[in-house]
Design brief:
Radius of gyration: 18 Å
Order of helices and strands: EEEHHEEEHHH
Oligomer: single chain
Number of domains: 1
Length: 199
């Protein structure tokens, strides 16, 4: 007899194209992932946007709040990376190689852009996915930020913020080489050049 399976019921972030504002950045650290059939160690970060025009009452005591959505990127600003064009879209300008490699992603906090979201059906349920990040249309003004800006990095560690994260994000951070170094744990690392990774 097969075990019963219940799909996770969730309030989905709407699909479509919306104004969005970056309010949280999480530097996950260098973690192991499969790339072209091999396990590699790659630096990762996660951007989280709020959608100020799309709100929902998640808890009665808090009233209506903006939907939020996150996406994880390899922390690379090489020409083949996905993060570089996303960064350029958010800041609204192209970067030279020198500017790209010197860019501090903390500077994205509070900046507005436009994102496109789709819904994907999986065995575990329907999930949201950011497919496109683009600059705001000329003349469009994004509403004021709702959520407090937050950064979690190993240089700006915040245990309270870390503890409040979903388990799957915490598990990734704990597995990172930077977290283990911060906690005094030793680990052999097989380095990979993130600029050669197109995601």
């Amino acid at each position: 007899m097969k075990a019963p399976f219940t799909k996770l019921e969730r309030t989905l972030t709407p699909a479509g194209t919306f104004m969005a504002r970056v309010f949280r950045i999480i530097y996950i650290g260098t973690i192991k992932e499969s790339y072209m059939g091999e396990e590699k160690e790659m630096p990762k970060l996660m951007l989280t946007w709020e959608l100020p025009t799309e709100t929902h009452v998640f808890k009665e005591e808090n009233g209506a709040q903006p939907f939020t959505i996150s996406k994880e990127y390899t922390h690379s600003m090489g020409k083949k990376s996905n993060l570089r064009p996303v960064t350029e879209a958010i800041i609204g300008t192209a970067l030279t190689d020198e500017e790209a490699y010197g860019f501090d992603h903390d500077e994205l906090l509070g900046l507005a852009c436009q994102i496109t979201i789709i819904h994907e059906d999986k065995q575990s349920g329907t999930w949201e996915k950011v497919t496109t990040v683009s600059p705001l249309l000329k003349g469009v003004v994004c509403p004021e930020q709702f959520n407090q800006s937050k950064v979690l990095s190993f240089e700006k560690w915040n245990e309270e913020m870390f503890t409040a994260l979903p388990k799957f994000i915490k598990d990734k951070i704990v597995s990172s080489k930077e977290y283990k170094a911060m906690k005094g744990l030793k680990e052999e690392v097989e380095a990979v050049n993130p600029d050669s990774i197109p995601f």
